[in-house]
Input
Amino acid sequence: MKKTVQVNPDLQQQKRQAMQRRLTGRVATVACLLMYSSYVGQVSTNLAGKPVSPVQPLFAAINALLWVIYGWSKPHQKDWPVIIANFPGIIFGMLTAGTAFVN
Output
C-alpha cells in the first residue's frame, strides 16, 4: 500500500514567498550597485574640469549611510542586502561630491 504525503499548502506558500523575497533582495542589490557605480562618469567629468553639482551625490551618500546604519542595527539579524547595496553609495557619493570641488 502506498503512503500519500500530505503537503501543507501554507508551508508551500511561505517557502515560495521567502524565495521571492530573496530574489527581490538580490535583484534590488544589483540595481542599487549599478546606480551608485554610475557616479564614475560624474567623477570623470569633475576631474576633467567640468564639475557637476555636488548636492545630489552628497545627499545620495547620506541616504546610503542611513540605510547601512538601518541594515546593520536590525535587532535579530543584519540586513545584508541593504548593507551591501548601499555601502558603495557612501563611497561613490562622497567621492563624486568631493571631486566637484577639485580644479
